[in-house]
Amino acid sequence: MRHVLNITDLSVSEIDSLIATAMDIIGNREKYQDICRRKKLATLFFEPSTRTRLSFEAAMLELGGSVIGFSSASSSSSSKGESVSDTVKVVSYYADIIAMRHPKEGAPVAASAVSGVPIINAGDGGHNHPTQTLADLLTIHREKGRFNDLTVGFCGDLKFGRTVHSLVSALSRYCGINLVFISPDELKIPQYIITDIVNKNHMPYIETRDMESVMPTLDILYMTRVQGERFFNEADYVRLKDYYILTPDKLAAAKPDMCVMHPLPRVNEISRTIDSDPRACYFKQVENGKYMRMALIMMLLGLTPEI
Ligand code: CP
Known about the structure:
Layout: H1 12-27, E1 40-45, H2 51-62, E2 66-70, H3 84-91, E3 97-102, H4 107-114, E4 119-124, H5 130-144, E5 150-155, H6 162-171, E6 177-182, H7 191-199, E7 205-208, H8 211-214, E8 220-223, H9 234-240, H10 248-251, E9 259-261, H11 282-301
Parallel strand pairs: 1-2, 1-3, 3-4, 5-6, 5-8, 6-7, 8-9
Helix pairs in contact: 1-11, 2-11, 3-4, 5-6, 5-11
The protein binds phosphoric acid mono(formamide)ester.
């Protein structure tokens, strides 16, 4: 039994296999429509979600399986004081695989210690979001055709942005990656990411507050929302939430084939006028997320067919 709590729980060759499976799903949808018949996915979401929960559910339904679960802590017995461990132990008697989101960092680790079925971390606090990274990697694969030799800018809330932490971790296993961290001082990338991932893997990086000065150098610009729900102080959130807004004027300085990525939800950080720019890839990430979650569910259930 395997759990996916962190993107590095998957080897580079397993990620290559998931991408190959996702590409096969895109071209051969009927081949996959009954693979997970009589299998059940439980989605345990203790924190709000649109994309991750619904794409997991759509993924399992498109594989011919079924879905059970809850979409908020308030509609589960955790509102009566039940622990995450007890909740997961109980649900593992009902389902074959669990996708779980929780506001506390490390909650999926506690879940994996008691679960009788595979646990997928669907986001834990400001820590990790490995299946968003799978969506991001398929998008980079389809748009750029490579994971090596890329200059990747991460912009916005790099402190609480779990999708940033997971993608930096994923990219650390490829060659020729230059990282550009663009944030206000209050939302800088955590030191443990710099020490344990960036420096440990000898990845060149710069930190700056100035998005416009680095724009011409980027192959990918990964925008993020300022995560108001993780702030302790409302005044700080209000002061920082619109620190970066990507507009057509700013995008004019970018490479003609730069990818603008964003895990979504978006608030104000990308102008709607950019949605029609061919460099906008954020809705492609949404679609790619479903295919990668289909591939991951099959892999963890040992049901991936021959390609
Ligand atoms: N990208 C992402 O995790 O979106 P949701 O919060 O809507 O699941």
